[in-house]
Amino acid sequence: DQDTARALLTIADEAGARVALVGDLHQLPAVGRGGVLDFATRLTPAVVDMTSLHRFTDDAYATLTLELRHGRNPAAIFDQLNALGLIKLHESNDDMQETIAKTACPEDAITAATNDETRTLNERIRAERINRSEVDDLRTVCGNDGLPIGAGDVIQTRRNESALSVANRQAWIVQHVGDDGALSVVETVNGRKQQRIVT
Length: 199
Fold this sequence. Notes:
Structural class: alpha+beta
Number of strands: 6
């Protein structure tokens, strides 16, 4: 977003550093005031436009992603994605939520359209995990959404807390719920040799 870009460029200016902005003008815009890449391409002559796609080994799929990006003939693209088995159709919202609840893993990222849908999915996933004895529902505290949190639950911190080195939207697995309601949590898989534990 523009405010973050301005702060970054100010620091780079003060340090005598060079900044290279890499991005895709066709991607969704920033959550805040966007348009940074548009401004940058107009303000500097040093713009490199990459046109080759290197991210996929399947050439047919790579071509399909470019069509999806340009938004031409979305119905045909949907049919092709469906034919490749990349889309799962459900009879109803309830059927879809049940499938998600039964197959979700702690490492999965699940996107929902509304806060109510998020809460419903969280409740259903948690109930499934309790049934599989992956979550202890005997000693719990309530999260910001009013849902119970027990040992084994996957939670997400919702604000930055520099004293604890905790970031907004960082994912954790609850290890223990204290008598005072304090949670001992461990970072979800992050590539480090030792995962941090925070209370």
